[in-house]
Amino acid sequence: MDKEKLLTALNAIQNGDKEAGAYHDELETLITLVINAKDADIAAAWEDFHTDTDTEAADKAE
Fold first, then answer.
1. Would you list the DSSP string of 25-62?
2. Nearest 5 degrees, angle CA 10-CA 15-CA 17?
3. What does the alpha-carbon distance between residue 3 and residue 49 come to, in Å, rounded to a whole number?
């Protein structure tokens, strides 16, 4: 298992790919990562996402 396989699985889900169910092992791995993650790490990732999203929105508005 590697990061590329995990990202492919997440992209399939995000894009509504009919074959997303084929990524069962990858999804189980991601669930385990989330369960084992510290709340502070998840909060920091969420903040990074919002910062990036806000920056992109501001750039498009200009």
1. HHHHHHHHHHHHS-HHHHHHHHHHHHHHHHHHHHHHH-
2. 90
3. 18
What's this model's pTM, rounded to 2 decimal places?
0.67
Output the CA–CA distances (angstroms, integers) from residue 47 to 1, 4, 21, 29, 30, in the order listed.
27, 23, 29, 23, 19
Single out the residue of 34, 36, 29, 38 nearest to residue 4, CA to CA. Answer: 29
Tell me the per-residue pLDDT of 24-42, one tens digit each, with 9 for 90 and over.
Answer: 999 999 999 999 999 999 9
Give the pLDDT confidence score for residue 37 in this predicted structure: 95
